[in-house]
Amino acid sequence: MTPSANPLIMLVDIFRAPSAAFLALYQRGMWGWQPYVFLVLAPFLFWGAYFDIVDFEWLKAELTVQLEQTAPNQLELLEANTLMASEIISDIVSRTLTIVMLAFWFNLATKPSQHQHGFWRWFAASAVITFPALIGDVASYASLLLKHGQVMTYAADLNSLNGLIKLPLTNDWSQFSSAFPLLLPWYIVLGYAAVGTWTEFNRGQALVISALPWVAYYLIWALYILVS
Question: What is the per-residue pLDDT across 205-227, written as a single tens digit (0 to 9) for each?
Fold first, then answer.
């Protein structure tokens, strides 16, 4: 397998030849910052466009009805710039935290391997693993245009399950579905490629290591909702 020739080719290889991207990342760990920068810049572009297009008075009226039932103390925050900042910060924090937790997990789970990689190397790999979220951002923007801005904030992100099922804030499963990534199978496949490229683990072990943190996290969350 030939590694990606340069950082831009590596971004393309994430979709067409993941092993080549991870091999390049193994040789040049600093290239991992490039997908991370794209991931944290995308929310600025999407939510800026969203609040330029959406009918804010309509959005405010719809959110007011729901927040009166779920979080009355947040009604005073229903202002365009405040909401936009909140959505941007939420996306950046969520993406960064996901990458950090994945990096910790891969660093821990691959300790038995003969090929050891530090936390920041796995951070770079985790940024690559979650990079397809940019496709969801593009799809979200396209959907926003097609619907002429008539999309609620909690249903605007097509990276999430709630982008499809559009559960209101009053639904117990709203936060869960808003956090559950539609591209989860893709993330697992990319994680599998990373572990398979960087370690000597067999396919079964690589798949378990890649899938376990996602499955465990969302399964525990779903069970908590069911029990409570």
Answer: 999 999 999 999 999 999 999 99
Average pLDDT of the chain, as a whole number? 93
Contact 144, 49 (CB under 8 A): yes
Phi, psi angle pair for 150, to nearest 5°: -85, 65
Specify the 3-state DSSP secondary structure of 103. Answer: helix
Tokens of 204: 């079964």
Burial of 120 (0-12, 13-18, 19+ CB in 10 A): middle
How many residues can be counted in the chain? 228
Greater pLDDT, 125 or 148: 125
Task: Please list the residues that pair with 107 across neighbouring strands.
Answer: none
Q: Is 47 helix (H, G, I), strand (E, B) or coil?
A: helix
- The answer to whether the CB of 144 falls within 8 A of the CB of 151 is yes
Question: In angstroms, rounded to a whole number, what is the distance separating the alpha carbons of residues 129 and 103?
Answer: 10
pLDDT of residue 70: 86
pLDDT at 74: 83
**What are the pLDDT digits (tens) for 149-176?**
899 999 999 999 999 999 999 999 999 9
Cα angle 126-130-131, degrees, rounded to a multiple of 5: 110
What are the residue ranges of helices labelled H in the chain? Answer: 7-16, 18-27, 33-53, 56-70, 80-109, 119-129, 133-146, 162-165, 174-179, 184-198, 203-227
